[in-house]
Write a structure and sequence with these properties.
The strands form 2 sheets. This protein has a 5-stranded antiparallel sheet with strand order 1-4-5-6-3. 24% of the residues lie in helices and 38% in strands. Strand 5 (87-96) and strand 6 (102-112) form a beta hairpin. The chain has one domain: Hotdog Thioesterase (Thiol Ester Dehydrase, Chain A, Roll), CATH 3.10.129. The protein has 135 residues and is α+β, with helices and mostly antiparallel strands.
């Protein structure tokens, strides 16, 4: 079952037209990603520190299905899945909460584990692999 992160759209998330700026969807998803890792017990301080391995986003894509505005209540589903021994994808669904929840966006990011020194691919750390498998 996907992890669920709940959030309100804030004024800085929006553009001059009053809707969520397209790049903020990725930021909101990244917040949900971090919360999912923390809830699973992955220590964020060490995850984002340079301990010899880094896990950058290698690809992202998004489909914007309906506008979101300041004050909207959101539920973001986070569903990781393995792509290889050193990469994974995260599928997100952003739901606009209300009397009836409606899908507002579908986002996908792909991540690859590499050496911070050589940039060669590395096997995912055990705690991250466990998080992916649990997703």
């Amino acid at each position: 079952m996907p992890f669920a992160y709940h959030r309100t759209v804030h004024f800085p998330d929006t553009d001059a037209a009053g809707v969520v700026f397209f790049a903020r969807y990725l930021s909101i998803c990244h917040e949900a990603y971090e919360e999912s890792l923390a809830a699973f017990g992955v220590p964020l301080g060490s995850f984002f520190a340079d301990n010899g391995a880094v896990i950058p986003v290698s690809k992202s894509e998004a489909s914007y299905l309906r506008p979101l505005v300041c004050g909207d209540l959101l539920r973001i589903e986070v569903a990781p899945r393995a792509l290889s021994e050193n990469s994974y994808a995260i599928d997100y669904v952003i739901w606009k909460k209300g009397a009836v929840e409606k899908r507002a966006a579908v986002v996908r990011t792909e991540h690859v584990c590499i050496s911070s020194k050589t940039r060669e691919r590395l096997v995912l750390p055990a705690n991250l692999q466990a998080w992916v498998e649990a997703g």
